[in-house]
Amino acid sequence: MQAVDVLRTQLHAAHGGMAFACQNLTSEQLHHKFPGATIQAMMPIYVHLVANEDYLVNTMLAGKPTVWESGWCNRLNLDVTESFLSDGWAAKVRVDDLAMFQQYAQDVYTASDAYLDTLTPDDLDRMIDLPNGAQIPLGTFLALVIAGHAMMHAAELSTMAGLHGAQGSPF
Amino acid sequence: MQAIDVLRGQLRQAHDVLEFAIEGFTHEQLHATFPNSTLQAPGVIYLHAVTCEDFYLSENLNTGPLIYTSQGWAEKLGIDIGNGYLTPEWCATVRIDNLPLLREYAQAVYAASDAHLATLTPEDLDQMLDFYGEMRLGDFIGRIMVWHISEHGGEVAAYKGLYGMQGLPY
Fold first, then answer.
1. B16-50 residue pLDDT tens
2. Hey, which end of chain B has fewer CB within 10 Å, N or C?
3. How many angstroms separate the Cα of B6 from the Cα of each of A115, A135, A167, B157?
4. What's the ipTM?
């Protein structure tokens, strides 16, 4: 088993978990922020995850335009330029066509798979520069920042689904 | 970088998130569920996440008897850990009166996991095991152990956010 196999499998699981959590919920539930909570509504978390993966994999690591810039920016009326889940940004997120957003997400996931396919075990040991000036191995970045980030936020989405009375984490 | 390096790093990160997440709840919040929710209380989720890792080590990775029963934690904590499933019936019986002690038990489980993973070779990760069907050991660690702790760590962190505390910081 190669390290990249682990990463690919986990990303697939996280992507599936996000879609599973959002199924069968109303648009109102997807955009509902619980009173007094610091956690955002489900839809901003979903957008944050997909847009971050798009930027981190395609632009930061592969040096290419994002999938968003390649056409989806003209089809979805969203601001995906913010990397963090601030209250102000999250309050503005509105996705009225979940199916179309999930087509964008699918294109991002396909691009991530294609990027992982290019990597050798040696590539994962290559040091990369982080925006804060630190350096870490590419494999660590993929494991802890991209896959880890996706798993944790997928868990938040399943939590919110459970709070709306739907099926959350099935285990 | 080998697959086992990825898995050890991810499991450590997942443990760190779960431990960060469980800090700061009141005793009442630890045991409270939200109205009309299908989700169990954060304290119960935490207990389930840790004991499941103990079960995985003992029953799936064959590291020996449960740490909970073999190292005295059952007597110290006095909690019935059930069979590893978050059934409503079991959850309703759980009472966590000494969270710091429970977290000491969690540290013992985490240390045992890391020690075991440190012994595994790349070839070991390709060995098949049975967990609701056959899968490679590496897939079991990545898709079941790491995922399970990450999932429940995210859930407990979400609860913190619902109570107005800082949840996931990113």
1. 999 999 999 999 999 999 888 888 999 999 999 99
2. C
3. 18, 17, 30, 23
4. 0.86
